[in-house]
Amino acid sequence: MTSQQHSIDDLLYQLEQELRRLTLWSLVKPSPEKLMSTAPFCVDTLRFEQWLQYIFLPQMYQLIKNLQPLPTQIALCPMAEEAFVGLSDKAADLINIIGDIDELLSGQRQQQKFLRHE
């Protein structure tokens, strides 16, 4: 496992834990039809957190497990900021984790809200 894959694996775990902490983790899997949407982020059939849980996380874990190249053009943060606007600042950690994933994979951070000041 490369250092990038190890770092992404850690961030994916943090993402899962934060979704659970915010009670956004679903216990009921969407129907296969909903998971097969071809719309970006399955926006026509799933909530964004469902897409993260049932599409993004499993695909990323599979790439890491099989030591396959990770995506390099990714920008989840703008969608996350829009999807979680109703959570207000409760979503700060979640959005920062997603921003970290974007930055590690693509080298860019398109995050506008809840930026950490380091």
Automatic annotation (TrEMBL):
Name recorded for this polypeptide: YqcC family protein
InterPro entries in the cross-refs: UCP006257 (IPR007384), YqcC-like_dom (IPR023376), YqcC-like_sf (IPR036814)
Gene3D superfamilies attached to this UniProt entry: YqcC-like
Any one biological process term the GO annotation gives: single-species biofilm formation
Organism lineage string: Bacteria, Pseudomonadati, Pseudomonadota, Gammaproteobacteria, Alteromonadales
A Pfam family reported for this protein in Swiss-Prot or TrEMBL: DUF446
Superkingdom: Bacteria
YqcC-like domain boundaries: 8-104
